Amino acid sequence: MEFRHWKKLSHKEQDAIITLALKNNIDYEDKMSLGIPVSKLDPNVFYEQASFLKEAPLLRTYLQNPNHIGCHTLGSSEPFFNGTQQLEEEVIELISVDILKAKSKSCDGYIAAGGTEANIQAAWIYRNYFMEACDARIEEIALLSSDDTHYSVTKAANLLNLQSVSVAVDEETRKIHPELLDAAIVHSKKAGIKYFIVISNMATTMFGSVDDPDLYAGMLAKNEVAYKIHIDGAFGGFIFPVSCPENNVNFSNPNVSSITLDAHKMLQAPYGTGVFIARKGLMQYACTAAAKYVSGMDFTLSGSRSGANAIAVWMILFTYGPHGWFEKISKLLYRTAWLCKQLDKLSIKYYRHPNLNIVAIRAQHIPAAIANEYGMVPDSHTEAPKWYKVVVMDHVEIDYLQGFIKALGKAL
Ligand SMILES: Cc1ncc(COP(=O)(O)O)c(C=O)c1O
């Protein structure tokens, strides 16, 4: 695989680039800015003379507190924070091209509050697109997804006043039943739905299962309805493209219009680092024309947002580089495979996608005390759980998993 933008940079190299970017933002000591309700973090509270700050470009960014309001891959932006906004633009292009296989400069995007916001941004864009470009009435538009989809899609339906259609998945394989998908589309069409906004998963929250966007596309085309497909890669976006590079959940697939990723999950970035990326020509449908005081207007759900979050994502990707990141993901997948092997030996039933680091174990094998002790997450806190999941993150080492397996063996 070739990488156009993604490479490893030393801490010194990163520091030099971020220092220059901060210099290109407004310097409140040097230049007056009478009109913006912004300043650096309050120096009475956030001490700026600490010696370690010299070595810590991210902390210096937090102190300077750049506002990245708007979308920097599109038109102009607030000039006060041009330096760090350029690094956000760079990181969006890197993720689009080197991770999600988009053509150069073919996408827009921004660092959102999280996966929830990025999914809602997608639904918002497509609702407006169908209403503005296709003359759709709101009651003719529905969100379409699977039963394993994250609840942010229910939030999007509620906020945007859209109907929500959910399709059952197979209990064992977690794959969408094609005949049930067909039936759901036929039924919705009879009820007056003509436009579908699909949220297709690149790793579901509970199982790590990956939907096939081409199944949705084929079924919707067969039923002669209009659709747009968004990929929810909040969990899998920084894993699946690396562990399974030949996939159809990226921009090389013409059926895919936009993608969510979450840097504050696998990338271990600070919270507030969701990523929304869409093909060019779509962000405009979320333009708020009333945002007249914002230079370049606002195409995002967020409004003001911290530029430090974009710098954090930038730093993580350039610290690892593509090969370092591949090694990290491979290590997590090795541990996941180890866990599955031990579960097999104990004849414990579970679901695992071979390219992901989630193991969902049937609840019947997990005594509540073990679930509690090992911090497992159930599929439901309101009903009797059917599944408990283990997410093999950086801190979930085999030594720790060994204790878990031993406890499970004893309980059996
Ligand atoms: C698949 C998926 N989508 C969306 C989200 C929502 O992400 P956030 O909590 O960052 O808003 C999550 C969170 O777990 C998720 O797993």
Question: Explain this structure to me?
Answer:
With 412 residues, the chain is of the alpha/beta class. It has two domains: 79-304, 3-Layer(aba) Sandwich (Aspartate Aminotransferase, domain 2); 322-411, Aspartate Aminotransferase, domain 1 (Alpha-Beta Complex). It contains eleven helices and eleven strands. It has helices at residues 11-24, 57-64, 82-99, 115-133, 152-160, 178-190, 213-222, 240-243, 307-345, 368-373, 398-411, and strands at 107-112, 141-146, 163-167, 195-201, 226-233, 256-262, 274-279, 350-351, 358-362, 377-378, 387-391. It has a seven-stranded mixed β-sheet, sandwiched between helices. A four-stranded antiparallel β-sheet has the order 8-9-11-10, covered by helices on one side. Helix 7 links the parallel strand 4 (195-201) and strand 5 (226-233). Helix 2 packs across helix 9. It is globular and about 65 Å long. It starts with 10 loop residues before the first helix and ends with a helix. The mean pLDDT is 95. Pyridoxal-5'-phosphate (PLP) is lined by residues 114-116, 119, 150, 152, 204-205, 232, 234-235, 262, 274.
